[in-house]
Every structure is written in structure tokens, then in C-alpha cells.
Design goal:
This protein has nine helices and two strands, in the order αααββαααααα. It is mostly helical. The chain has one domain.
Length: 230
């Protein structure tokens, strides 16, 4: 990207980033649609059951693998994908952007992240997939199962905030560091839902795809906002 900046104008770079973003969003939509079709047709049931059982003691399916303290840790991890934590992070980020005079980005976050939550609710109500019933749930869970709200919303919030934070530096290593943590936390939250038995694996994958696609849409808009504020 550094070499590109030497030969391309700001307008050219913006157009390049936009085109790449549109391609990624399109791939995300196609991936979500394809996965949804397979779930509805029941083609993923064998995969879902096998993976979910990996996390359980085969002699006692009510017992997740590992020591007792691990289950407590996993509950803490899964809480990072809950609406309270994600909401507080969003409010904090909006406050920071507002105080640093980036009012458009602050207002953008206020709209885009709650809109992502609304989209997740609408998808759940449309598909109404039952929660897994082959293992006891190790934590409470509301609404239907597909796509995973924790997976989708953690992808939306952590990836969006991580990407926006990475825009504050030109150092490539710092950008990679920030984005790596955003992806890592998103993955941890999704896996925690499998460990606790409240989602099928395809719920998590669908949540990651939907959340990542929504985050990319947000970042495309944010990129234009950043351009107009600089």
C-alpha cells in the first residue's frame, strides 16, 4: 500500500479501496446466502452435530471439556459479545470521536452499530432456527439460533472499531496488531458459544460472515467520512 501511495492520488487510492471493499461485501453476501441455503436444506446437520460434540465429555454430554474453571472463563469470554459490553464500547468510541472533533464518524457509529443489531434480530426472527438440543446449555440464551447474535455483533463492533482505530496510525505493524486483536476476540467469542452449547457451528459461521460483511460496509462509509473530515 505504501508503494501505491507514491504513484496514486488520494482519489485513486479511495477508488481502489472502495472497489476492494465492494468485492469483499459481495463475497460476504454470496457466502451467507450459500450457507443459509445449506442450513435450510439440512445439509449441515451432520457437521453441526459433530463439531458441537467435540466440546463435550462423551461420557456426560452435560459436562463441557476441561476443568471447572475453564467453563467460568468461557462465560467471561462470551460476555464480551453481549449487548451490554458491546454497547459500552460503542458509546466510549463515539464519545472519543466526538471529543476529537470527528463528529461525522461518531454519528455514523451511533447509527451503523445499532442498525447491525436490528439486522441480526430481523434475521433471527426470519429463520427461527431452534437452539441445539443434543447437549445441555451451559448458559442462558434467548431468541432463535441463526445467525449467532454474539458472533455477528462482536464481528461488527470489534472489527469496525479496530479498523477505525487502525486509521489513527500510519505504522503498518501497529495496524496489524490492532486488527489482529479485533479478529482474535471475535473468534474467541464465537467459539465460546459453541463450548457453552447454545449455538450450532453454522450459526457462528453465519454470524461471522454477516458481521464481517456489515463491518466492511461500515468501513467503506467511514472511509469516505474520514476523507471529508481531513
Amino acid at each position: 500500500m505504501g508503494k501505491l501511495k507514491r504513484y496514486l492520488s488520494k482519489g485513486d487510492i479511495l477508488e481502489y479501496v472502495t472497489e476492494v471493499g465492494i468485492i469483499l461485501v459481495s463475497l460476504g453476501l454470496l457466502g451467507f446466502i450459500k450457507l443459509t441455503e445449506e442450513v435450510i436444506e439440512g445439509e449441515t446437520s451432520g457437521f453441526d452435530q459433530r463439531v458441537l460434540l467435540w466440546f463435550r465429555n462423551q461420557d456426560d454430554l452435560a459436562d463441557p471439556l476441561g476443568p471447572a474453571w475453564l467453563e467460568v472463563v468461557v462465560r467471561d469470554i462470551t460476555s464480551m459479545g453481549g449487548l451490554l459490553i458491546l454497547g459500552l464500547l460503542t458509546i466510549a468510541a463515539c464519545g472519543y470521536l466526538w471529543l476529537t472533533q470527528r463528529h461525522k464518524l461518531a454519528l455514523f457509529l451511533v447509527i451503523s452499530i445499532p442498525a447491525g443489531s436490528l439486522l441480526n434480530t430481523l434475521l433471527k426472527e426470519y429463520f427461527t432456527r431452534p437452539r441445539p438440543d443434543i447437549v445441555p446449555h451451559a448458559t442462558s440464551a434467548a431468541l432463535s439460533s441463526f445467525p449467532s447474535g454474539h458472533a455477528m455483533m462482536s464481528a461488527i463492533v470489534f472489527l469496525t472499531l479496530g479498523a477505525l482505530l487502525s486509521l489513527s496510525t500510519e505504522n503498518r505493524r501497529i495496524k496489524i496488531y490492532i486488527l489482529s486483536w479485533s479478529v482474535f476476540i471475535t473468534i474467541l467469542v464465537g467459539i465460546s458459544r459453541l463450548y457453552l452449547g447454545v449455538h450450532w457451528p453454522t450459526d457462528i459461521i453465519a454470524g461471522w460472515i454477516a458481521g464481517g460483511t456489515w463491518a466492511m460496509l461500515c468501513l467503506l462509509v467511514a472511509h469516505w467520512f474520514t476523507r471529508t473530515e481531513n
